[in-house]
TrEMBL record:
Places the protein is found: Cell envelope
Membrane-spanning segments: 6-24, 94-113
Organism classification: Bacteria, Pseudomonadati, Pseudomonadota, Gammaproteobacteria, Pseudomonadales
Keyword 4Fe-4S: no
UniProt keyword Magnesium, yes or no: no
CC annotations in GO: cell envelope; plasma membrane
Sequence ranges of the TPR repeats: 150-183
Ranges for domain Cytochrome c-type biogenesis protein H Ig-like: 286-390
Full protein name: C-type cytochrome biogenesis protein CcmI
Sorted UniProt keywords: Cytochrome c-type biogenesis, Membrane, Repeat, TPR repeat, Transmembrane, Transmembrane helix
């Protein structure tokens, strides 16, 4: 901040110079004006002396004219080069008053409207935090300085969760959603914070938030993990297994959290067996999708391809789905319970399914240009299925 104030002070000095230099020039002009007035007075006195000498007979008329001419030449020589003073309507006190008010007013306006706090925060964030508490304090100051920054509030909420301040985090995530909109990830974070703020008591509010998040994005990881935790705490072990399996399917193979998540799934399975239940077998189907020659000639590489399984006798909604592009074909994908759009609509819940692959240039899964369908299959089928997109989608 010292560098900033030094630069600001230098700029103020430059601004003051534009006010004070004209004042100093005015004083110089005043001195020139006073000297001119003195020279005129001396000229008038000399002319009067010459007139007295002529009246007394000391000088004749010719000598009087000569004396007057000489006095006039001296006056002209003394006043030569003197600029005509410029009149100012501002008056003398006003420039000095302005010179005083400019820096005072400038500092006052900057402190009110300026961004000195943001400059200081930027300098702080350029240095690594010494602790989690230090980082949280910085984020709190950033949120106070920029209350309309959804990104700053989001990171503050995450910091609160890391410090087990779930009630504060819930309030911050609620503000974040109000600013950034009801995005699935933000709704999931808000639901999680609210759940822990309520001492792990499931509430209609948390249920509504997770439902909304998964409706917008069935693969929203925070909501899936939270629903699994709530189901486990409520001794609904099969639900916990299902939710965590869906979450496990979204994590990259190298993600370190996969080990902990699999441990939770195994523990839920043990609890389920101890209570006399049996773990439902997961249904998994492997499908290789390709294009017919006619479809390949007319499809674009960027066209979307939706691959899904739906119940032969049941709701029309897909039981499991994947999305790729024409450029990726041929491709082999895995459709299973982990890809279920809703917990109650899983492959293992229906005895027969049909595999479908649709090309949609508009990116709409319900309508497109080309389609391929399989014959009805048992959901327990494990053999690799071949599916060719070969028919116009009508």
């Amino acid at each position: 901040m010292i560098d900033f104030w030094l630069a600001a002070g230098l700029l103020l000095l430059i601004a003051l110079s534009f006010l004070l230099i004209p004042v100093l020039r005015g004083r110089r002009a005043q001195r020139e004006e006073d000297r001119t007035a003195l020279n005129v007075a001396l000229y008038q006195e000399r002319v009067a002396e010459l007139q007295v000498q002529q009246d007394e007979g000391v000088l004749n008329a010719a000598q009087l004219d000569t004396g007057r001419a000489e006095a006039a030449r001296e006056l002209l020589a003394d006043t030569e080069g003197v600029e005509k003073p410029r009149e100012s309507r501002l008056g003398k006190p006003l420039p000095f008053l302005a010179a005083f008010l400019v820096p005072v007013l400038g500092v006052a306006l900057y402190l009110h409207y300026g961004a000195s706090d943001k400059v200081e925060l930027t300098r702080e964030f350029s240095q690594p935090p010494v602790s989690m508490a230090d980082m949280t304090q910085r984020l709190e100051r950033a949120a106070a300085a920029q209350p309309d920054s959804a990104e700053g509030l989001y990171f503050l909420g995450r910091a609160y969760m890391a410090q087990d301040r779930s009630a504060d985090a819930a309030k911050v995530f609620e503000r974040t959603v109000a600013l950034a909109g009801r995005q699935p990830e933000l709704l999931g974070q808000w639901a999680q914070a609210q759940y822990f703020a309520d001492n792990k008591q499931w509430s209609p509010k948390v249920q509504a938030l997770t439902d909304e998040a998964l409706k917008l994005d069935p693969k929203e990881v925070t909501s899936l993990g939270l629903l699994g935790i709530a189901a486990f705490e409520g001794q609904r072990y099969q639900e916990a297994i299902d939710y965590w399996n869906r979450l496990l399917a979204q994590l990259p193979p190298a993600d370190n959290s996969r080990i902990a998540l699999q441990g939770g799934i195994d523990r839920a399975a043990e609890k389920l067996k101890e209570s006399g239940g049996t773990v439902a077998q997961k249904a998994v189907m492997n499908v290789r999708v390709d294009l017919s020659a006619e479809a390949k000639a007319k499809a674009l590489p960027t066209d979307s391809v939706f691959i899904f399984a739906r119940a032969v006798s049941g709701p029309p909604a897909p039981l499991a789905a994947k999305r790729v592009t024409v450029a990726e074909l041929p491709i082999t994908v895995e459709l299973g319970d982990a890809d279920a759009m809703m917990p109650q609509l899983k492959l293992s819940n229906f005895p027969e399914v049909q595999l479908v692959a649709r090309i949609s240039r508009a990116g709409v899964p319900t309508a497109g240009e080309w389609i391929g369908r399989s014959q009805p299959l048992a959901s327990s089928t494990t053999a690799l299925q071949q599916l060719t997109i070969d028919s116009p989608d009508k």
